[in-house]
Design a protein that fits this description.
The structure holds two protein chains of two kinds. By secondary structure, chain A is an alpha/beta fold. Chain A contains 16 helices and 23 strands. Chain A folds into three domains: 189 residues, FAD/NAD(P)-binding domain (3-Layer(bba) Sandwich), CATH 3.50.50.60; 115 residues, 3-Layer(bba) Sandwich (FAD/NAD(P)-binding domain), CATH 3.50.50.60; 110 residues, FAD/NAD-linked reductase, C-terminal dimerisation domain (Enolase-like, domain 1). The longest helix of chain B has 18 residues. Classes of the chains: A alpha/beta, B alpha+beta. Chains A and B meet through α10, α12, β21 and α16 of A and β8 and β12 of B.
């Protein structure tokens, strides 16, 4: 049940189809066409984005993957989790039935197998675009196997040597393993296996209150599991502002998730066939019983067995491969992108950085990763999205910031949708209308934040944002309301 | 209660203030001088309530409710208790490093409930001690001065930083410093000022700015405010310190001060309750006071298709929440110095429409009229000492400014304010 490089065995037609796309069983690696303009190690979001751009630039490209195309994002992370979250959201909507339909509504039963089958079907559909066959058609030389640098400009796959002008390492990251005494023996899931469950667990314990832990806790609780989430910090989502984390905490509690904040799991044991997690909250000891345990305490970069030292590529076990602002490693011909080197381990960042690295390596560009404005989202209900600076980050940089806050309960569409929990908060540099960042807590925050992303990327300030007409009613109207509040305030100051 | 609500403003305020003070006398242990957290059976002492009580004795003397020598004797008794109490890292001590545990046994004066060595509650206690020190300054009251001097000087504020820039919320002998810190503006201003003002172990110079960097200056509901959701966070430090016209760097940049900020926050709270997005019973422009306090307890209810979830004792806030329809009935009157008109209008409305929130002329800690299963709404049982003490002080500050005046003369408060960057107003030398 712990993570590993071996693909899980196929279970269904969808799974077989998926393997056809991402790891064909009868695949034969091509004959190398050395030298390559670009050799990419790892075919997750970063590797695939890099291959796509490099081919469009007319380059000779080799792509190496040891497991499945699409990486964690497609196979065991972002894609499957969002399918299950949506199913859980739809199932939870039954709670609003009384409001919508008055009494007499019959609660639908849950077929967990159908939920998982839908997820598998949708994942396969998305995988088609990244399929081995398509890459082959595009002209990418696709190799499956373990890659290892054999010199500053050479990579070995088994006995096959690839010679490159430039290389990109995009091997991603994997779930951080347990350091909890006894947990290995008791058995636990990570993000790589929790979406492969065949039965809804009666009692699920989630260790870790980061984005994935919160998403899984809420989704499985809504599907009917008794879920306890244990977080060693005093609040969830340590990167988010306190109000956002507390709003989520209350939302999860309303769903029925049992919340244990400021609590550490210090040991695990089996007792009469039941998993028992020993916890410590300050000095108070307790035990939580579980049928299934999810460990979600972060991710570690995949840097082992790559022969990085042979190629002169420095790396740090926890931080991953060392890169400069142009994503170049300590080997001037090797770049890195994605979770293997990024502190922001998001699919969108991986893709953007990979394209940037290709342009820097082969197209004479000098694109800096520090120039990226990165939006991210935790897909709970309500969703929590953020971009740019937090107010306290601005202050630490000696930038005076003022936040314009609009509550979703003041937004007509949110009221009509019954989704009026949360807020939009846009941070502005005081004395200007420059947007420094924003936090959105709303049912559709993942979509709404993109409007701020566009504004920030295009250099649009609050005045211009206030003049952008929105459809009515729309939840994104909250953004314009914040911009209008800025203009009202500016007019009087 | 009809008689109470029919009184003119001055008389109404008098009655409510004196009744609130009587709690502090009624629930003081005769041997230790400690004051009970609540009126409920078996309640331990809250050291913060002792701090409020110490601050209220001058009010009682000035209003003729208590002879000065009796008040001084009460002050002396509790100061002697703290002076003689056990300071050690043992789990049943009264305090450690000059700080005190949040809750103490009323008789033995030792830690109960395995509670934390509380920094903020120690600060509220010490603020009360300094108030008493400044007020009881006659020759025959010299022991009060000396005890407070000793107790204040022995507090090791630098130890409480635990090598960090900012303060955590406490310490336990079992696990050391708590993970919880102070993030964003809140009631901790008094803590940082008292820590900065120490002549022996002051907080490091960067401590206050390290905390204030987490402040959020926000525009919400058409007002600019230094945001903090619960109303009490905008009141506690103000019970002792007159923030009118004095400004730290943060407020200098904004052209505002903390007093004005509380005024604006009250306006935001009233606007929120008038708007009443949660559709709670009773809410309106004269029904507000969402803050920390007792609540109906963890329960759920479905009403008109809406899920209602209620909480027990917790810190409620505006506009981001949490809000479960529960208000603190005392909070409107405690806002008198900032918006007397709003405070009186709200208090009168409350006393007329919901007289059950005020028994023996003392306000309950919490009231929730939405919880219709409880008949005329849920009312917290008994009284909480913090509420009563704050009310006495805020009413007095509104009427005479007594506490503010006393502490303007406190050298440690003045030093603390200046060290964290406050200037102007009454801090300017004549």
């Amino acid at each position: 049940m712990t993570e590993g490089p071996t693909p899980l065995p196929p279970k269904s037609h969808s799974e077989n189809k998926l393997l056809d796309y991402v790891r064909p069983v009868d695949w034969h690696n091509p004959e190398p066409r050395n030298p390559y303009d670009l050799v990419i190690v790892g075919a997750g979001p970063a590797g695939l984005a890099a291959a796509d751009l490099a081919i469009r630039l007319g380059l000779r490209v080799a792509l190496i993957e040891r497991n499945r195309l699409g990486g964690n994002s497609l196979n065991a992370g972002t894609v499957p989790s969002k399918a299950i979250i949506h199913a859980a959201h739809a199932y939870a909507a039954k709670r609003q039935a009384e409001e919508f339909y008055a009494s007499g509504f019959t609660e639908p039963g849950l077929n967990f197998g159908a939920v998982m089958a839908r997820m598998a079907r949708l994942r396969t559909r998305i995988a088609e675009y990244h399929s081995a066959g398509r890459l082959q058609t595009l002209g990418v030389d696709l190799f499956f196997g373990d890659a290892r640098f054999s010199g500053p400009s050479d990579i070995l796959i088994g006995g096959t040597r690839l010679h490159f002008r430039k290389a990109l390492v995009a091997t991603g990251a994997r779930p951080k393993p347990s350091n909890i005494s006894g947990l290995d023996q008791v058995g636990y899931h990570t993000s790589e296996s929790i979406f492969e469950l065949e039965e809804l667990p009666k009692r699920l314990v989630v260790i870790g209150g980061g984005p994935l832990g919160c998403e899984v806790a809420q989704a499985y609780c809504r599907l009917g599991a008794h879920v306890t989430i244990v977080q060693n910090d005093p609040k969830f989502l340590p990167r988010e502002e306190r109000d956002a984390a507390e709003t989520l905490s209350r939302s999860m509690a309303r769903d029925g998730v049992v919340i244990r904040l400021n609590t550490t799991v210090v040991g695990a044991r089996l007792q009469g066939g039941t998993k028992c997690l020993d916890t410590l909250n300050n000095e108070v000891k307790d035990c939580i019983e579980a049928d299934v345990v999810l460990l979600s305490i972060g991710r570690v970069p995949n840097t082992e067995a790559l022969g990085l030292d042979i190629a002169g590529i420095e790396c740090d076990g926890a931080q991953g491969i060392t890169v400069d602002d142009f994503l170049c490693t300590t080997n001037e011909n090797v770049y890195a992108a994605g979770d293997v080197c990024a502190s922001d381990k998001f699919t969108n960042v991986a893709r953007s950085c990979a394209r940037m690295a290709v342009q820097n390596a082969l197209a004479g560009k000098e694109k800096r990763q520090s120039q990226l404005t990165i939006p991210w989202c935790t897909y709970c209900d309500p969703e929590i999205a953020h971009i740019g600076l937090h107010a306290w980050e601005a202050k630490k940089k000696s930038i005076p910031a003022k936040s314009f806050t609009v509550m979703m309960h003041d937004v007509d569409r949110a009221i009509l949708d019954g989704q009026d929990s949360g807020y939009v908060k846009i941070h502005v540099k005081e004395g200007t209308d420059t947007i420094l960042g924003a936090t959105i807590v709303a049912s559709r925050a993942s979509e709404m934040i993109n409007e701020i992303s566009v504004a920030m990327s295009a250099g649009l300030g609050m005045r211009e944002l206030s003049r952008v007409l929105h459809t009515y009613p729309a939840q994104s109207e909250a953004i314009r309301m914040a911009a209008l509040a800025y203009c009202r305030e500016a007019a009087f100051s | 209660m009809d008689a109470l609500s029919s009184l003119p403003d001055e008389a109404l305020i008098d009655e409510l203030q004196r009744a609130a003070f009587s709690y502090l006398v009624e629930y003081t242990d005769a041997d230790t001088g400690l004051v009970a957290d609540t009126s409920r059976d078996g309640s331990p002492c809250s050291i913060a309530v002792v701090g409020f009580a110490l601050s209220c004795y001058p009010v009682a003397v000035e209003n003729g409710w208590m002879a000065r020598k009796d008040a001084a004797a009460r002050v002396l008794k509790v100061l002697q208790f703290f002076f003689r109490s056990t300071q050690s890292d043992q789990p049943d001590a009264t305090g450690y490093k000059g700080f005190y545990y949040h809750f103490l046994d009323m008789k033995a004066g030792r830690r109960v409930w395995q509670c934390e060595l509380s920094l903020i509650d120690t600060a509220l206690l010490v603020a009360g001690m300094l108030t008493a020190q400044c007020y009881f300054d006659r020759n025959d009251e010299r022991e009060i001065h000396e005890l407070v001097e000793t107790l204040y000087r022995r507090i090791d504020w630098r130890w409480a930083q635990n090598g960090e820039e900012t303060l955590s919320q406490g310490w336990k002998p079992e696990c050391g410093f708590l993970h919880y810190g102070w993030e964003g503006y809140n009631e901790a201003t008094i803590l940082y000022i008292l820590g900065a003002g120490s002549p022996t172990h002051p907080l490091s110079p960067a401590s206050y700015s390290g905390w204030s960097v987490t402040y959020q200056w926000e525009n919400m509901l058409a007002r600019d405010v230094l945001y903090s959701g619960p109303l009490f966070t905008h009141l506690f430090s103000h019970a002792w310190i007159d923030f009118r016209g004095i400004r730290d760097t943060f407020m200098q940049i904004r052209g505002s001060d903390y007093f004005e900020n509380t005024q604006n926050t009250i306006a935001v709270h009233r606007e929120y309750c008038a708007h009443n997005p949660g559709g709670y019973a009773g809410y309106g422009r004269d029904f507000w006071g969402i803050t920390a306090g007792d609540g109906p307890g963890d329960s759920e209810m479905r009403e008109n298709g809406r899920d209602r979830r209620f909480f027990g004792y917790m810190s409620r806030g505006v506009p981001i929440g949490p809000d479960d329809g529960t208000i603190a009935p005392w909070a409107m009157l405690a806002s008198l110095p900032f918006d007397a008109k709003a405070a009186l209008a709200g208090t009168r409305h409350l006393l007329t429409a919901y007289p059950q929130v005020c028994t023996r002329k003392r306000f309950a800690s919490g009231f929730n009229p939405t919880l219709s299963g409880a008949g005329s709404g849920w009312v917290s049982e008994g009284w909480y000492g913090l509420d009563q003490g704050l009310l006495v002080m805020m009413i007095e500050n509104y009427r005479t400014g007594l506490i503010w005046r006393i502490l303007r003369g406190c050298p440690y408060i003045r030093t603390g304010l200046k060290r964290v960057g406050f200037e102007g107003g009454w801090l300017t030398p004549p």
